[in-house]
Specification:
This protein is 70% helix and 0% strand. By secondary structure, it is mainly alpha-helical. The protein has one domain (34-209, 221-421): Ammonium transporter fold, CATH 1.10.3430.10.
């Protein structure tokens, strides 16, 4: 009898809480419109942004292959996300993975919302989060450009989404173990950039170097395409970071301004270092520095002041430049488009910078769902962020290795020597860019 009373009391408590939440829920048209735009901007980052960025930096014979990877990531990940990925990420409160409460968008109606974003339709929140999963998978392809089978990349997206991305996103954003520990990641420093960077590094090591690496000229096909891609990424990042406020409020504005200033500072520092060391600032250096600044400010963007964005971007420009030019050369790994040097290193730095620069007055603002308590830069938060970084790196590295071994057993990872010499455009797609 006592057990029955406790059970009934618990049911009443949950029902009361649900009713109170439902009574307070009001979908805001302004927030909804803002998040629709932010969603479109983030999707634009993959197609055509990342597709153009990568296409401009590979060799002519592999341009279409690089673009095909971005397109495939959008198509494959989107379907899987709506089928089950969203549910496993944001439904349920398990420490590592969610549950099946939203499989095939079960239970979503016109007025359905989630406590993570109570002023917009839950379906919009689902679509917005889908764009993050899409670009994370697409980013990894840059590390193994010129040599990975298209079929292998497609399989990689399927397995990697479930083994690495979804558990990581749930642990940080879905109420899992890292969130409970106190780790914060405003827009994807760990979930997107560390995961993409570490996965790219592991993939580059497992797949192996491009044939002729270090001996043949592997200069970019058309940097003008990469510059256009960078511009689309830069603008899209306003939706990436600003939209992560999940409402059209002051926090979104602060995030956008910090993001822009970080990109500017990263571009200036990277190109300045290049100018000093090599005598000329390259276009590739300018856009690489900008992307480094953008990736590094991502986890901190909604928690810091605008001038913090300048400092974080400047640090990103210097550190990522060092990894892409010095560390990569010394260790002799072939990360084709510097996914680890820019996104992995930038994501790690950015996560740690949350523990240094986060401003309590911003985290206390009420316009961001999912932020509990005050997030303030101090020794404790820095330690918490460091733990989050280590867990993310280890989870991603091990998970990516497992995924690559599965894919290798199913289809093989790499094109053969003749096809690599011919180029993946003709070998994999039967098409090519002609002069």
């Amino acid at each position: 009898m006592a057990f029955l009373k406790i059970f009934l009391a618990l049911v009443a408590f949950v029902a009361t809480g649900a009713a109170a939440f439902a009574a307070d829920v009001k979908i805001e048209p302004a927030d909804t419109a803002f998040m629709i735009i932010a969603t479109a901007l983030v999707l634009m980052m993959t197609l055509p942004g990342l597709a153009l960025f990568y296409a401009g930096m590979v060799r002519r014979k592999n341009v279409l292959g690089a673009m095909a990877q971005s397109a495939a990531a959008v198509a494959i990940v989107s379907i899987l996300w709506f089928a089950i990925g969203y549910s496993l990420t944001f439904s349920g409160q398990g420490p590592v993975i969610g549950d099946y409460g939203r499989v095939f968008l079960s239970g979503m109606g016109l007025e359905t919302v989630t406590a993570l974003a109570p002023t917009i339709p839950e379906l919009l929140f689902c679509v917005y989060q889908m764009t993050f999963a899409v670009i994370t998978c697409a980013l990894v392809g840059g590390a193994v450009a010129d040599r990975m089978k298209f079929s292998a990349f497609c399989l990689f997206c399927v397995f990697w989404l479930f083994i690495v991305y979804i558990p990581s996103a749930h642990m940080v954003w879905g109420g899992g173990a890292l969130a409970a520990f106190g780790v914060v990641d405003f827009a994807g420093g760990a979930v997107v950039h560390i995961n993409a960077g570490v996965a790219g590094l592991v993939a580059a090591l497992v797949v192996g170097k491009r044939r002729g690496f270090g001996k043949e000229n592997m200069s970019p096909f058309d940097l003008s395409l990469a510059v256009v891609g960078t511009g689309l990424l830069w603008v899209g990042w306003f939706g990436f970071n600003g939209g992560s406020a999940l409402s059209a409020g002051g926090r979104a504005v602060f995030a956008i301004v910090a993001t822009h200033l970080a990109a500017c500072a990263g571009a200036v520092v990277w190109s300045a270092l290049e100018w000093i060391q090599r005598g000329k600032p390259s276009v590739l250096g300018i856009i690489s520095g900008a992307v480094a600044g953008l990736g590094t400010i991502t986890p901190a963007s909604g928690f810091v002041l605008p001038w913090h964005g300048v400092v974080i971007g400047a640090l990103a420009g210097g550190l990522c430049y060092y990894f892409c030019t010095v560390v990569k050369t010394r260790l002799k790994y072939d990360d084709s488009l510097d996914v680890f040097g820019v996104h992995g290193v930038g994501g790690i730095l950015g996560m740690l910078m949350v523990g240094v620069f986060a401003t309590a007055s911003l985290s206390a603002s009420g316009d961001t769902a999912g932020v509990s308590g005050l997030i303030e830069g101090n020794a404790h938060q820095l330690w918490v962020q460091a733990v989050g970084v280590v867990v993310t790196v280890v989870w991603c590295a091990v998970g990516t290795w497992v995924v690559l071994k599965i894919v290798d057993a199913l289809s093989g990872l790499r094109v053969d020597a003749e096809k690599e010499l011919q180029g993946v455009d003709i070998a994999m797609h039967g098409e090519a860019i002609h002069q």
